[in-house]
Design goal:
Four copies of one chain form a homotetramer. Chain A is of the alpha/beta class. The first copy, chain A, is built from 18 helices and 13 strands. The A-D interface holds A 258, 262-263, 279, 281-282, 285, 360, 362, 388-389, 391-393, 395-396, 399-400, 402-403, 406, 414-415, 417-419, 421-422, 424, 427-431 and D 258, 262-263, 279, 281-282, 285, 360, 362, 388-389, 391-393, 395-396, 399-400, 402-403, 406, 414-415, 417-419, 421-422, 424, 427-431.
């Protein structure tokens, strides 16, 4: 029998992720209930409500959901069993500064939302918002499970736990799934066996979000990582993963394999993400260098266009001028919620504070490892130790996040600049140039920063 | 398609556990291959081979196994995928000393094979044997998975890892299963729902073997531990668990509940085991005191008689004068082996060195927690922190084991006496009396100790 | 040139310790300034002021001090560079219950103010008072150095840090000094060299207050601990330390040596204290058993009488009818203050939160180790690891303190009883008896407990 | 009375450091005995013996020493109380490759013997030699105290402990002393007080060798670090420290101050060393960039010339054609030896395995912190936590050392290249260029590498 729950959705006006989530929700058959949409953009939330209601009417729908729209976060949160958060901090204009301003300084970021200059600035805009979310959750629904989807993932999960230590939160990201998909391809190509589903292999992944590593990958007793050298011999240029996607998102797994070759553990996120945690010159030496490594820089223009299309679609779907259809995504959020609600047990990788799952990372740093989800519990699995040199990169990324968080929490621009200059993507800058870039990026996005930071000291 | 494997069985002449194991093995349908029996008692191993062969001929048999008997451990181990170890160190005469000699000094042990005076002496006999096993495994089958069933569990697993650090070993024990069974009963009695199978609830268990604690027990979103006060009100004298068993093994769960009442976490082993980690006066003040707590002292006479029956049965079964039948046990060893062999994923509690699963226990101490078994991997799950006072008892037990191991490894009777006197079960002795007891127990079992220890210093 | 400082003295009406402290202060020549006495017993504080003023007038006085008496803690604390705290929680009537009520249950406590039943009850009375002190210090003098002398030492220092984490506090105790004195005696007796001052040897001490251990003791390159077996052969009954003291405080070092014999590290506090952390039967089996071990039980009658004499002396000294004289004590508080004030560097053992000085103890537990005092800094020295079996006893004591603190902080009598029953001194009690004793002791002292605890649940 | 000891000197033919050491030794008045010189360059050792004997004859000599020369290490070590090690691995030709080859690739190293390309290559030459030293010490003088002076300091101390875990070794370096000297200058300039000796202030230093940081610096209750901003205002270009030295060794403390400005802790080594742990572009962007920061690149030509002069001096002194004179150096080695020998207590910063002194660094990494030296003991003092961003740099340096050690121990060039490419000084290279540089440097020094590494795989 399906279980009745209430889900609050912060950022419920989302143009993309909300639809994906509603699809998966409606296609599940063991949960039903209410989805409470909260967004500062109420119109978008109302559109999502309408889309959700249309989806529920489809024949393929397997569960019934009521949709509500909230102008105040409190009513959305009250009584919630689960809270999902997926917001866009600032607008595409701010994102444009995050991603493209550093290019003037020779820094190329394929994504620009996690590490590097873009990641720091985006953190500065987003963490203060999450500080408030954490307080609201403590006030209105302290027992709810909180699932974060917003980037920069690690620092936002850290914010939630730091402000409200008893929160039951974790952060979900599908990047490791893609790495698992790649490994099933390796199995197929090297061993000549029919490509299994990624759920049929087991991987031990650990690291920080978007810079996770796979240290073990087994299919029965086949050690998949050990097949990589042979695979690389066959495909020295890698293979295009997910070719149906826009070329801006290309990934040939060349970076993943290069990391394996040097570090004895495989990078386990999209190549576009992994490279943002490495020295600029390794994979992003100049604007076209990335092509050698089989990936592209995603422009904000592209993002903007894609978003415009989605908005148009949303309006059309909401107004009924465009058909809606139900399709299961490759995301796991609904599966995790089911397991937590007592419907089965599942292992997946999520982001949580370190309590022992990565023994060599600082206690309390947000790390991504496998966890077990079951019966109202989420428990991390102790990850295999990373090889020393890989651990060094991950530890550095982790402390950079912790230092960034400290700087934002204390509204201390000096601390923020120190960690800004120490980003691997800034390795090519001298200190004066780094400072100029930092200042320029702050000024570009001052509308969103000035409520929290005193920019006049810059 | 079933996978072909070789299992080496050290102690393959076992009178009880071998039969249970062969049953489960033959009733599984995804593994088959060879079971190589090694025992210093070759005749018993030969009998088990014959029994195994008869079982395989039964119509209900789901997999085919070849059985071999080995007089040398090397041939048994060579080529093994799995090694199971289940031996009896010494004879019932030594066990008689372990269990009953302390009674003269006012110390009553329901089991006497893990903690307390009996546990120390049994450790002194068994650890040196396991030192050799570890060396043999390193030599003959370093990549095999090793499953230990012999008590004292923790110290023997510690021995294996200390002598051969790269060993892939874990220790299995069913005691937590019984505690889970009890919790399903609580669910039934308090919530009036049909009693679920223990696999349908989830428990977070942690501690050291035979002194594990359940800190979380959930059935969907029902917090089962929170039902205990109501259950206790209904059943102030507990309920006899597993009434089909001999009264010597009675368990009314009164100790488990008492621990929960005082420590906010439930003891998760048979009451007979739990009490051996507590001060004598708590549950074992005098010979009959245990009756107040719903359990009995198991005599070695009873064990001897039970064993005699089993030997007679074994002979009859081997000779074909007694019918054999296949019956699945409640043990999980075969399930774990299947998962490791790549046939599914399973979570179960086993004993392994601490690498982060119990953050407050020393690194390297052998702890029992949930682990995930899958595709050639066994990975511990980080356990919820024990309440401080319970942690104190468990930590004390853990360091007592480490100190005992140190004393045996260094063949240092002084160190062994120090930890002997500090056993909770010895809390009522003065130092002189404790020394006399220690010396008497050493002398009683000197046949098995003198090859390793210089008893003349006592 | 002497440095001018302000010292606030909480408990400044103290009958004994205040005089000792004023003596050492006035006999130092590098600090001078103001001593601000605060006490709820204002009359006593006024008497101490008068005594202090008389002492300052003596020819031997080396520094000038102004004395002030404060009825409000705020004025005493404001502007203080140092704060010393030395109070008596409750009266001798409460202490009588702490020490002697357990005797009816077969528990004999030579001191009864740290561990065991007496220690728990005294903690319950004192911690709530210290919670307020911590808040006052945060408010009035957050930068002052705080030196605690009150027992139970560990839990009170823990309280200060838990309530006001940035406090600069440590706890001073002279017990290790006595153990060092004993070791100089060993040097003399075994090596035949002239007995050196305790400052001329070096000891590495670690543990929790009153249950510290010496793991290294060197005089040049002489390993003093290695001399203990020879010393014991010469003096099987030990030697009476400090024979000038009342027999109630006798210490023949027999317990210290016995611990060394069994644990390879020497107990480093008065024997009367050490035994309170061991099972009752080891050294306190019955009322007279302690005589075998060369120490006595200190009665509260004795304490009362001694106190009466001291009060009479104080009155006489304050009124000028009794001469005052200056005499340097063996305490180190003033030396530590001098070093902190930048007048030299000194190593001494004090009680502080664990930040790495005892790697095997929990972070944040209050441990006693050597620290270096110098130029406005106090930094712990990493202690040598305790032998495993000794570590087990110390760790147990440490977690018992942490659990007691947790129970008091949460005003949770259930938690308090759990740790009460687990005290080594309660090892002989069954649970029902332990509960009766706990209840009786709470009721005896309810005047001081009821403001904080709901005793009606007992 | 002076204590008689034997000191073994590995590298006893040293051209510079041996003379310094002999001076300090002969000028001390509490130790005397034998100095056993071992060197593969026997002639140089013989010269040092002669120089030592001449020094002893001077009137100012305060202690008598016998000098012996050993062609076999065993006789030098046997019976030693102390062992000092100070060797040059390879010749100036290898050093030329270490320091200058990277310049072709845009990497400028002022020293080139610790971190960066030069540090890695020098480690590869030296660690295998130290593996043998550790075995020799275990064999011939396991109880001796071992003082290392050779660079790269951290990895060599790590080698000693990894090969012979019970060794009593530490590494001495004077770089922190210079930072302390600078702070006394700051005191003088800002506070207008007479410049005190560096021993009169207290600093808490921590980090890895040549990349240590001062987190606290106090003079009485003056916080010296807090004076740095004012000092920098007065001296925006720093002040030349030790102007008597060759300009190649110039240090204006500008880097130290820049680090303080950004990280809230002051770099505490020569600026020339500190910059080698930072991204190239920060202080070493091009060949002349360092001039902006007040330091120079030390050429190997300069080193060679200086060495030639020293050799000529040594010959002349040994032959008696040049006068010898006794002069106390600013080194502390002899002071530390005196303290260990039981002549007083001293606090100094040395390099030892982390056992808690830096809680956020990995256990067992070699860290430099204050330690207390006294009576046959050296015990680390727990250092104040570094600010997060500074900790990140130090942790990165520490794991780079650990990874380098792992690569050398396993003779694994792949691992070595991984950590080579991750050196901050290599941050400007792409992977292919980094590999070419690594290969070129290996080939340049192959005479010293081929006995240990299979270079054909490059």
């Amino acid at each position: 029998m399906a279980k009745k729950i209430k889900i609050a959705y912060i950022g419920g006006g989302s143009k993309q992720w909300a639809r994906v989530f509603m699809n998966d929700l409606i296609l599940n058959d063991s949960l039903n209930g209410e989805l409470a949409l909260y967004d500062i953009d109420v119109d978008s939330a109302i559109r999502n409500k309408k889309i959700g209601e249309r989806l529920c009417e489809l024949q393929e729908a397997k569960s019934k959901w009521d949709f509500s729209v909230h102008e105040e976060i409190g009513t959305a949160l009250t009584g919630a069993d689960f809270i999902v958060i997926s917001i866009l901090p600032g607008t595409f204009e701010e994102m444009r500064s995050d991603v493209h301003t550093p290019e003037k300084y020779g820094i190329y970021q394929p994504v620009g939302d996690t590490a590097g200059p873009g990641g720091i600035l985006r953190s500065m805009r987003t963490v203060p918002i999450y500080e408030q979310f954490a307080k609201d959750i403590e006030k209105y629904s302290p027992d709810a499970w909180v699932i974060n989807f917003t980037n920069p993932m690690s620092i936002l999960v850290k914010t939630l736990y730091d402000v409200f230590p008893k929160i039951k939160a974790f952060g979900c990201c599908h990047e490791v799934f893609n790495a698992q998909d790649f490994l099933t391809l390796v199995l197929e190509k090297v061993k000549g066996i029919e490509r299994p589903d990624r759920h049929d292999i087991y991987t031990d992944a650990s690291g920080v979000n978007h810079f996770t590593w796979i240290t073990e990958a087994t299919y029965g007793d086949i050690d998949i990582l050990a097949l990589l050298p042979e695979f690389e011999k066959q495909y020295p240029d890698g293979i295009l993963l997910r070719p149906f996607r826009e070329s801006f998102l290309d990934d040939h797994a060349k970076v993943k394999m290069d990391l394996y070759k040097r570090y004895d553990a495989m990078g386990a996120a999209g190549d576009r993400h992994l490279v943002e945690f490495c020295n600029s010159n390794f994979y992003l030496k100049d604007k076209d260098y990335c092509k050698n490594w089989g990936f592209n820089l995603t422009t904000v223009d592209f993002r903007q266009e894609r978003q415009d299309i989605r908005v148009a679609e949303s309006i059309a779907m909401a107004e009924g001028t465009m058909p809606v259809e139900l399709k299961k995504s490759s995301e796991e959020a609904v599966e995790l919620m089911k397991a937590i609600a007592g419907q089965g047990t599942i292992v997946s990788n999520v982001n949580m504070p370190n309590i022992g799952q990565m023994a060599s990372m600082p206690n309390g740093s947000i790390v991504e490892t496998n966890c077990i989800f079951t019966h109202n519990l989420v428990q991390p699995i102790v990850a295999k130790e990373l090889p020393t040199a890989a651990l060094n990169l991950v530890h550095r990324a982790g402390l950079n996040i912790d230092a960034t968080y400290e700087g934002i929490k204390e509204r201390d621009l000096k601390k923020l600049f120190a960690t800004f200059a120490d980003q691997p993507l800034c390795a090519n800058l001298d200190l004066e140039t780094a400072y100029n870039l930092f200042k320029e990026m702050c000024m570009n996005t001052k509308e969103y920063l000035e409520p929290f930071f005193d920019l006049s000291v810059l």
